[in-house]
Amino acid sequence: MAIYEFEGMKPKIGASSYVHPLAVVIGDVIIGENCFIAPGASLRGDLGGIVVEDGTDIQEGCVLHGITRVGKNNHLTHHSIVHVATTGDNVMLGMGAIIMDNAEIGDGCIVGAGSVVLPGIKIPPGKTVVGVPGRVVGDVSERARADYLEGIGYYQTFPGRYPKGLKQIG
What we know:
It is a single chain. This protein is mostly beta strands. It is built from two helices and 20 strands.
């Protein structure tokens, strides 16, 4: 497994979480309970601490770097980036979304695929953000909330399923 100490800082990973062997976790990183870290994810705590709170999934190609906090039950989909930023609880980042330095995403927000939240932007709770640069286009719809709940619920089964069901065959 690619989990590394860096300059005396060792990652701390919740006992009920799963980190895929092809993910990279370096240095000052705390991963809570029931988290799923997919292959190809990179959590680099070499320039400040990273905290991933309980129930969060971080999918393939995601990058977290610098002083970063990801709230509870976040759904960070493929290739999203959180760099020196904060997300609240129950947030979904669409594929390829980028959250830049000192930005804050409020609880219950959905950031659309390919969106870029610029440095220092603060998104209020419960909002939908789309575009480059990212802009609030309204409240999270009931349909979008239902889709988020379905996705996060599915991914929250992986920490229990992967250790038993994943077997390298080649």
